[in-house]
């Protein structure tokens, strides 16, 4: 980001769209360039350059989340091949701290957005439901770091979690009723009363954040 | 340290109450032989332990009496009642014996009464919450205590200069600073006693309570430094002494923490090898933690910090290593000891207040102190919170600040420290003692009584009791990984990054060293929660009279009524370790440790039958791929009575197919063969 006129205009535009401050945008832009190797866009392969990310058990899901059209607000499903800086910022904006001085409605909205990000991570086939198979997938990945826990155990954990979710969302079920999967509303119900705001944010280097949240 | 080893036992009651010893030496010269005494009264031989036991008994009986009235206990915290009881008892003893006999002796207090409470709180401290808020806790503990001490001391000195404190209180600036240092520390015992009845939200509680634990180092250093300055005389204090004082702060706190961590390491390591000697496990936990306390005390380091770090550090490994029963034993013993110690402390505080020979009253000093501690604490909290909120992820709002400043209770530690002052060096000691007593009583009684209505009036966020859910655990883990990943992408080494690094280091090196191999293998938080939830569900299900395995045709033989089911129910089988109910002959045959066997038993039963009868048809998708085979229906044995090992063994099906991924071994294999060697049967494709 040099001192050119158009660059600072762009920055202001991005500030407005994503809610980051100009310092943070510059910081992130530098990081973006480092990741992309000075290209204007990032592809999935660029994420292999981050050594620490290799150790993360749910790495594939996270990288996928960066390219997910639903998170980029470009469509209902599918994956983008590459993302530019603005898309990068859009994804990062999910992790900004919620400004608690905003009114209750905006806070709820921000909360929903963050939970939606999480939901999209679980729901890999974009059908709007987290099915048992997808849940099992997640649990297996989470437990993949520990080589001594068998796949069968992961499966039974996922089954148990699904049943718990069913009991929370639907309550008593008829004998032949089938629980298809967790919809987004059910997902919100599970998270009722638990502060996601305190858990889901990363502190970006500059403390000042503009109180905006899409 | 100045916490000198004073008499370890209470002063024996010399006068009233003691009876003459009627025994005489048989065969003493010049005396007729007494003949065989049928009954002798030997009070002096049992006096000391008997008195100790009596006091503890009185305290416990008092607790029972208090709790008889629900109304009283909901309004008045227990600590208040105990102090008032102490006052009454002290008055009685004073009236009977004409002198105050029982006191809160600093030696007894610091060596015997304080360690259980601190150990209990350190061991059961929620470590994740503690480390998340560590910045705030440290700020309040160190900066806050220093601020309180200096401002209170200086303000009191100013009060004296202004003439509001009577001149008979001979104290200079250093004396007031010394007094300020001991009166300004928030007391862990009092905070615990009051806050655990109020149930504020966890963040608030952990900040106030963490502060009360960690400020011990600061208090110790300040007290020591000021005391030695007073002894040296204010004229002899040099600049290097001030620097030494600052340096000793670091030495005391870091040294105390290091001692605690060393003992935590030792404890975790020793429990790794106690597989064959399970009975000494609880003993080890207490001994090593107490040793940590005493070692830090001996080296003049912060003992409270040592025990806290010991409890925090060792818990994960110890809980993984020791048996189920030992865990329960440790938990309940710790809670009992801590509760007992707390009761005795408050009672003795009440009793000690009655001894008027120890104190002298000065209204200016007392009122001034009360006002200043409240005022400066509130001011300090506001200032520090303003600074902290720039850095915190979740800011602390005004209501939290009010509760924090109001919740800064002083207690027995301040009292013990003031009693330890040397009257020859500090002539104003008696006035200080009286002031401390008033302050402690005020904070515990008045603030303790009013904090509950205050919390309700301010609508402070209360702690909601979440039952642990599997979903929550899963999502928390996902969060941690996502946040660590985002920090990696951004290139920012923030809190999550370092926590992730620590967890990996722990997994690779520490856990391998400190945990038993069998525990290390399946150690995973998600698995632990799942396991615990399974057990909880199983026990509650069966206790409600349900039959495990009923859908598969296996029922407990001839159980007509619910009562008899409850007696010989699966619950009892599950609860006895290693009891024989098992579907797999081979599991019974192989020699295994009690815990492994009971785990396997439980797992078989749960996998085999639990979810199906309960959620009948609820999840077709789950039922479609039940990975575990249903045990074959078995002939019902018509003998009533206990379902013992023998019965089950003969009703076991012949060699069920191996599907359980648990620790079953093939018959004839050596125990040393890794259990990954066999493979589960492939599961049919799921259709939803």
From TrEMBL, chain A:
GO terms for biological process: cell differentiation. Residues 7-16 have a biased composition (Basic and acidic residues). Residues 1-20 are annotated as: Disordered. GO terms for molecular function: calcium ion binding; protein kinase inhibitor activity. It is found in: Cell projection, Lamellipodium; Cell projection, Ruffle membrane; Cytoplasm; Membrane. GO terms for cellular component: cytoplasm; lamellipodium; nucleus; ruffle membrane. This is Calcineurin B homologous protein 3. It comes from Tursiops truncatus. The lineage of its organism: Eukaryota, Metazoa, Chordata, Craniata, Vertebrata. The gene is TESC.
